[in-house]
Design a protein that fits this description.
The structure holds two protein chains of two kinds. Helices cover 0% and strands 57% of the residues of chain A. Chain A has strands at residues 3-5, 9-13, 18-25, 32-37, 44-49, 53-57, 60-65, 70-75, 84-91, 97-99, 103-108. Chain A is an all-beta fold. Chain B is mainly β. The chains are: A mainly beta, B mainly beta.
Chain lengths: 109, 115
């Protein structure tokens, strides 16, 4: 199977910056996705990287290094509503999407 | 904004009973996925459809689970008989064509509790 690792939990203060790391080992690579999932709700799409480098989308940015099997999701100007689980998902050589266990981010006032 | 619809949102059943979940993907999306998500874990693919055909059901416990997408639009996932270990969130997702840059969009899920 695929191996996708991300930290279990992170805590940060409102207005701060948090970086969620994801490392992966897959059979082939066809892109990496980040999803946000609030408790009891469905995952919602945040970002997609297939080439090395940084993709910026408002307060959220995602970085990919294919040679290192590494990605991070950067959340800036944290807001209380950003408290959620963040899922790293990798599409392998067969175009199958495998998810990490998720990182629960808690934003404190 | 188009969304993936699922019903019911919550289901409580006793073990050995049969349960069924329904999913209506975003209009025009040819690819449909069923995932199971156990609390504290990421979603795990159960079955993938391309139109009405099964593309991948390698992780579907076929002795008790079945899925169909008869007309290539909405889909039903069935469990018979349900077991305690089936308690989880069942998520349906759809994508336009299942290609390289294709993004999967998820429905609200069905939370199953087996007593």
């Amino acid at each position: 199977g695929q191996n996708i690792d991300q930290p279990t939990e992170m805590t940060a203060t409102e207005g701060a910056i948090v970086q969620i790391n994801c490392t992966y080992q897959t059979s082939g690579f066809n892109g990496l996705f980040w999803y946000q999932q609030h408790a009891g709700e469905a995952p919602t799409f945040l970002s997609y990287n297939v080439l090395d480098g940084l993709e910026e989308k408002g307060r959220f940015s995602s970085f990919l290094s294919r040679s290192k099997g590494y990605s991070y999701l950067l959340l800036k100007e944290l807001q209380m509503k950003d408290s959620a689980s963040y899922l790293c998902a990798v599409r392998d050589g067969d175009y199958k999407l495998s998810f990490g266990a998720g990182t629960t981010v808690t934003v404190r006032a | 904004e188009a969304e993936v619809a699922q019903s019911p949102r919550y289901k409580i059943t006793e073990k050995s009973q049969a349960v069924a979940f329904w999913c209506d993907p975003i209009s025009g999306h040819a690819t449909l996925y069923w995932y199971r998500q156990i609390l504290g874990q990421g979603p795990e693919l159960l079955v993938q459809f391309q139109d009405e055909s099964v593309v991948d059901d390698s992780q579907l416990p076929k002795d008790r689970f079945s899925a169909e997408r008869l007309k290539g639009v909405d889909s039903t996932l069935k469990i018979q008989p349900a077991e305690l270990g089936d308690s989880a969130m069942y998520l349906c997702a759809s994508s336009l064509a299942g290609g390289p840059a294709d993004t999967q969009y998820f429905g609200p899920g069905t939370r199953l509790t087996v007593l």
